[in-house]
Amino acid sequence: MEILDKLINVALIAATLRTTAPILLVALGGSFTTKAGIFNIGLEGQMLAGAFFAVIGSIWTGSAFAGVACGVAAALAFALAFAVLVVTFRANEVVVGLALNILAGGTTISLMKAIFGTRGSIVGHGIVGLPKVQIPGAQALLGSWAPLISGFTPIVYIAFIAVPLLVLFYKRTQLGLYIRVVGEKPEAAEALGISITRVRYIASLLCGLLAGLAGAHLSLGYITMFTENMSSGRGFMAVAILIFSNGDPLKVLAGCLLFGFADAFSLRLQTFGFPSYLVLTVPYVVALTALFALSYRARPKVIRETLASMQKLLSVDRNSAPVDKNPQ
Amino acid sequence: MSDRLRAFSGQIIAVGVALLLGAIIIILVGESPVHVLMTLLRGAFGDQEKIAGTLLQTTPILICGVAACIGLRGGMFNVGIEGQLFLGGFAAAWVGFTFSLPAGIHTLAALALAVVAGAAWVAIPAFFRARYNTNEVVSTILSNYIAVLLTSYFTIFLFKRPGGWSETPPILATAYLPEIFAFSRLNWGLVIGLLLAVGVALIFRYTSWGYGVTMVGSAPKFAEYGGVDVKRQGFVVLLLSGAVGGLAGGVETLGVHHRFMEGFAPGFGFDGLIAALLANGSPVATIVTALFFGALRSGSLLLEVDTSASREIITVIQALIILSVSAQVLIKRRGDSQAGERRWKF
C-alpha cells in the first residue's frame, strides 16, 4: 500500500496532466486534418519545428510568448508546405508527411550547428521558459489537491480548454461542419459548392497552429531546452490516437490521457530501478497495443452515425440542400 | 519508352529543383553551396578509399531500399525498416559471438537469424494490417522506437562486452563477411545487395507471384477479382520486406562493425525508403538512387571536418528531393491524364 501511495498520488496525476498536454494539443491539431480526410503523418515534424523555433524566438526576443509565436509560425510554415503538396499538388500524403518530418529533423540540427555551433542540444543561452499560472484561491479551495488545477503553464490550460471548444466547433459551426463533410463525403461537399481545397487548407493550418503550440510546450514548458528530435515520436503516437478515435475530440482526450499517464507512470517506474530502456518503451507499447486492440472494431457504425447527424445538421443549416429525406 | 524517358527526366528535374532549394538553405546556414558541393564530391569520390567508403555506405541503403521496394510494389508502406535493421543487426551479432561454427556456415547462420528477426519484428503489424486493415505506416513507425530501445537494452543489460561501453562482445572471425579490397572495409555485402536488387526485379518481372503483388499494389480490386488473396498477399509482402530489412542489419554487423553497438546504423532504414521512393519502387533503379544517397552520406563525413555546415544538411537535401519529386505529378497531369499517372501517386 505504501508503494502504491508512492506510485499514485496527486503529484502523479498532475504530472499526467503535464505530459498529456503536448500530445493532446498535437492530436487535436491532427483532428482537423483527420476530419477533413487527410492522413497527416507530418505532425511529428511540425511539432519539432515548433519546439526549435520557440527556443530561437525566446532567445532572440527574451520573451517566452514571442518564442511561442515563433514556434507556431514555423509549424504553420510546415503545415502550409504539407497543404500545398498534398492538396494542390495531390502528392501522396504519407510520402510528403514523412519527408517533411525528415526535413524538420535535418533543418533543426543544421540550424543548431549554424547558430550555436553545437550538436545535441541547446541549453541556457538565455532561453526564457513559460510562466506558471497560479489560480487564485486554488490553495484555499482544494488544499493539497490544488496542484491539479493550478500551477501549470498557459499551454496546458489551452490544451484542455480546446477539447470542449473543438466539440462545439464540429457540432455547431459551419466551418466545423464543412470540414466533416469534406472528410466524409467529398462528393457531397462538391455538390454543395464547398471548396474542398479551401477547407483542407484551413484544416491543415489549424493543425499546424496546435502542433506548433505543442512543440513550444516541449521546449519552453517544463524544461527550457531543445534537443535533437525532442518530439521523440509523440506526433506519431498522436496519429495512432487519431486513427482509433476518428478525430473526435473527447475520444482524443481519452487516448491522450492514457498516454500521458503511461508517460508519467513510466518516469516513476524509472526511479524504482527498472531498466530505463525498457521503461522508455512503455508509451510506444501502449500506443501500439491500443492501435491493434481497437482496430478490429467495426468502422461502418461510426460512419453511419456521422452521416446521420450530418444529414440532420445540413437540413437545418440550409433548407435547399439536396438531402435524402427518406427516413432510413 | 518515351513515357519512361519522360518520367526519368521528370525525376532529374525534381532533383535539380531540390538541389537549388538545398543551395539556398546552405547559404542560409552561412556556407557557400559550391564549397559544400565540392567537399561532398571530394568526400565521396576523392580517391579509391573514398569511393570504397561511398560503396560501403551504399550497401545498407541499397538493401533497405530493396526491402522498401517489395513493400511499395505490394502497396504497403514499410516505414519500420529501421527497426528491422536494428533487430537483424543484433540477431546476427548474437549468433556471431555466441556460437562457434565453421567459417561460411557461421556467416550464413547469422544472416539467416537476421532475416528471421526482421520478419518476426514486422509480423504483428503485418498481421493486423492484413486482417483488420490497421494502418501499417503508424504501427511500423512506432515499432521502430521500441526496436531501437530493445536492442539497446539487450546490448547494455544482457550482453555487454566486459569493460566495454555500449557494445556486445565482438563476433568470431568465422562469421565475418569477407572484405573485397585490402584498403577498405568494403565487403561482400555490396554484392549481396546488388544480387538481391536484380533478383527481386526479376521476380517482379517474370513470376506470376510478382505480377500478383504488383497488381495488388496498383489495382487491389482488379487483383481480387482476378483471384488473388489480397489479405494473405499483403501479409507475405510485409513479411518479406521485413526479412530483407533484417538482412540489411545482419550485413552491416557482419561486414562492418563485427559487433552490435547502440545506435549502430542510424537512418539507413529511412534512407533506403527514400531511395526506393525516388526509384519509384524499382529495385534496379534503387541501385542508382542508393549510390546517390551513399555518396551524399560518405561525402558528408568530410563536410563535418572541412566546413562549418552540419552533416545533417544532406538529410535536408534528401527530404527536399523527395518533396519535389512528389510535387511533379502536377506538372505531368497537366498534359495527359493517363500517362502521367503513376503506380504510387507521389
Which tags fit this structure?
heterodimer, A: 328 residues, mainly alpha, ABC transporter involved in vitamin B12 uptake, BtuC, two-stranded antiparallel sheet, 2 strands, 73% helix, globular, B: 346 residues, 2 domains, 14 helices, 74% helix, disordered C terminus
Enumerate how many helices of chain A there are, as a single number. 15
**Beta fraction of the residues of chain B?**
under 5%
Low-confidence stretches of chain A: 317-328
Number of domains of chain B: 2
Write the layout of secondary structure elements.
The complex is a heterodimer of chains A (328) and B (346).
Chain A: H1 2-7, H2 10-35, H3 43-61, H4 64-88, H5 93-116, E1 121-123, H6 138-142, H7 154-172, H8 174-184, H9 186-191, H10 196-220, E2 225-227, H11 234-245, H12 249-271, H13 276-280, H14 282-295, H15 300-317
Antiparallel strand pairs in A: 1-2
Chain B: H1 2-28, H2 33-45, H3 48-73, H4 81-98, H5 105-132, H6 136-158, H7 189-206, H8 208-218, H9 220-225, H10 230-257, H11 268-278, H12 283-306, H13 313-327, H14 329-335
Helix pairs in contact in B: 1-13, 2-3, 2-12, 3-7, 3-10, 3-11, 3-12, 4-5, 4-6, 4-10, 4-11, 5-6, 5-10, 7-8, 7-12, 11-12, 11-13
Walkthrough of the structure:
The complex is a heterodimer of chains A (328) and B (346). With 328 residues, chain A is mainly α. Helix content of chain A is 73%, strand content 2%. Chain A has a two-stranded antiparallel ribbon. The longest helix of chain A is centred in the first third of the chain and has 26 residues, at 10-35. Chain B has 2 domains: 1-31 and 311-346, no CATH class; 55-307, Orthogonal Bundle (ABC transporter involved in vitamin B12 uptake, BtuC), CATH 1.10.3470. Chain B contains 14 helices and no strands. Chain B has helices at 2-28, 33-45, 48-73, 81-98, 105-132, 136-158, 189-206, 208-218, 220-225, 230-257, 268-278, 283-306, 313-327, 329-335. The longest helix of chain B is centred in the middle third of the chain and has 28 residues, at 105-132. Chain B is globular. At the A-B interface, helix 4, helix 5, helix 11, helix 13 and helix 14 of A face helix 5, helix 6, helix 11, helix 13 and helix 14 of B.
